[in-house]
């Protein structure tokens, strides 16, 4: 067994009646890593997470958390992690501080340690000024920050986050990102499910792309982007009537297809890269085709996501 891998998922499957929800998914997560499960709605991300967190039994395969088998040693496996979802399991009639104190004691902290840990988390999540108000006064963003704070009270070795920033405003989302990164800096390991490509790109050390219950790709964000292709050429033609002519010129030079969206043309460049770009620019200029925008950029995770999931349905 590789002791660096704190989470090991080996060839797991899950069926609901005749429907195969998850098929042949395997990955390992190293200690101190942020690992992203990325995929469209209904791809199987939450089903995978439920199996890892012992809420569902897998029909085949093996899952180890810190060396403990989730089926054969479920009680010990459950002691290795904390999980937070999209809704908080907190008491509405109590304050944020009281909720954190209760969860601290449930996690085996003594009164003084629980009190200090509550203050530390309230500070981290910008909730100290509201610490003694009942939760009825809390906004959605404050509730979500408290939910994450509750899940961190026992400093879990492994933290599972199921779409933790869904529906949050940008400021609160950034606070959540900072909190997750601080936790990892203190030695925790995080598995994050998300639909937000920006979030996966920003946070995750590695990403597994899930679609229709299968793993399509796994790697660092930059490795996944390289799988799509090298650089991407994007230009906007000034005159709509000249789009077809511009498309033909680019296709002839690249010997590759060009995506057209109204006046915007997009194409992937091969290894010859910038030398063909100047050739395209010269030919467009010779043909008298004016452009509003012209850019060469690396593909985004959006490009990865679209290429690997669209058209496979």
From TrEMBL:
Matches recorded under InterPro entries: AAA+_ATPase, ABC_transporter-like_ATP-bd, ABC_transporter-like_CS, ABC_transporter_ATP-binding, DrrA, DrrA1/2-like_C, P-loop_NTPase
GO CC annotation: plasma membrane
Keywords, in A-Z order: ATP-binding, Cell membrane, Membrane, Nucleotide-binding, Translocase, Transport
GO-annotated biological processes: daunorubicin transport; doxorubicin transport
A GO molecular-function descriptor: ATP binding
Domain ABC transporter: 7-237
Topology relative to the membrane: Peripheral membrane protein
Keyword Nucleotide-binding belongs to the record: yes
PROSITE patterns: ABC_TRANSPORTER_1, ABC_TRANSPORTER_2
Subcellular location: Cell membrane
Annotated family: Belongs to the ABC transporter superfamily. Drug exporter-1 (DrugE1) (TC 3.A.1.105) family.
Protein name as catalogued: ABC transporterATP-binding protein
Native organism: Oenococcus kitaharae DSM 17330
Lineage per the UniProt record: Bacteria, Bacillati, Bacillota, Bacilli, Lactobacillales
């Amino acid at each position: 067994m590789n002791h660096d891998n704190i989470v090991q998922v080996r060839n797991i499957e899950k069926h609901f009646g005749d429907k195969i929800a998850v098929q042949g998914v395997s990955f390992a997560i190293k200690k101190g890593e942020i690992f992203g499960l990325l995929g469209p709605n209904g791809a199987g991300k939450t089903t995978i997470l439920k199996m890892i967190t012992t809420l569902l039994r897998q029909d085949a395969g093996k899952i180890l958390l810190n060396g403990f088998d989730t089926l054969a040693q479920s009680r010990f496996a459950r002691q290795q992690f904390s999980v937070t979802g999209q809704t908080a399991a907190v008491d509405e009639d109590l304050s944020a501080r009281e909720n954190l104190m209760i969860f601290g004691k449930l996690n085996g902290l003594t009164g003084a340690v629980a009190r200090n840990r509550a203050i530390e988390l309230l500070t981290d999540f910008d909730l100290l000024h509201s610490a003694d108000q009942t939760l009825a006064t809390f906004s959605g963003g404050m509730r979500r920050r408290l939910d994450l704070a509750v899940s961190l009270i026992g400093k879990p070795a492994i933290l599972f986050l199921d779409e933790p920033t869904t529906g949050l405003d940008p400021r609160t989302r950034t606070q959540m990102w900072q909190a997750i990164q601080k936790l990892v800096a203190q030695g925790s390991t995080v598995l994050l499910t998300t639909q937000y490509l920006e979030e996966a790109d920003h946070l995750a050390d590695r990403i597994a792309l899930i679609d229709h219950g299968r793993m399509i790709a796994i790697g660092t964000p930059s490795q996944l982007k390289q799988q799509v292709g090298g650089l991407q050429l994007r230009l906007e033609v000034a005159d709509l009537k000249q789009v077809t002519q511009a498309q033909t010129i680019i296709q002839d030079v690249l010997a590759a297809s060009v995506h057209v969206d109204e006046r915007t043309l997009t194409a992937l460049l091969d290894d010859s890269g910038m030398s063909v770009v100047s050739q395209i620019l010269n030919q467009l200029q010779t043909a008298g085709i004016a452009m509003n925008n012209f850019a060469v950029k690396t593909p985004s995770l959006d490009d990865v996501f679209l290429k690997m999931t669209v058209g496979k349905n």
